[in-house]
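[recover] target loaded
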């Protein structure tokens, strides 16, 4: 199975930048899609960005033009470059992958991103 470990969260002022990293290990050949979700206090978890093995990329409307998802060519890492951060981007960010073998949906432990105004 796949294991995911995030890093790169922290505290930043509005307008600043952060880069999140997610290291994947285990059966990385089974990964079909990798993505970043976030969950703010009192809100549901939402998809921020995703990238599929065939190159399809999706973004949450509110982060388009500010965030960029990318991956290592060997699919052992995915990154989220976050620019022009806003206080409303404050949340716990989770790395996720969709795999072709069980467990089909894998989550990392999460990393806190806090944007101060």
């Amino acid at each position: 199975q796949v294991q995911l470990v995030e890093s790169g969260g922290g505290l930043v002022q509005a307008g600043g930048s952060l880069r999140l990293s997610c290291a994947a290990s285990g059966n990385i050949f089974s990964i079909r899609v990798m993505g970043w979700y976030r969950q703010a206090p009192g809100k549901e978890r939402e998809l921020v960005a995703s990238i599929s093995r065939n190159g399809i990329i999706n973004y949450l409307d509110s982060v388009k033009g500010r965030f960029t998802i990318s991956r290592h060519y060997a699919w052992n890492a995915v990154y989220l470059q976050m620019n022009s951060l806003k206080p409303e981007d404050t949340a716990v960010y989770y790395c996720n992958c969709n795999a072709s073998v069980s467990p089909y949906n894998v989550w990392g432990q999460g990393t806190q991103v806090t944007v101060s105004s």
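[recover] notes: The chain has no helices and eleven strands.
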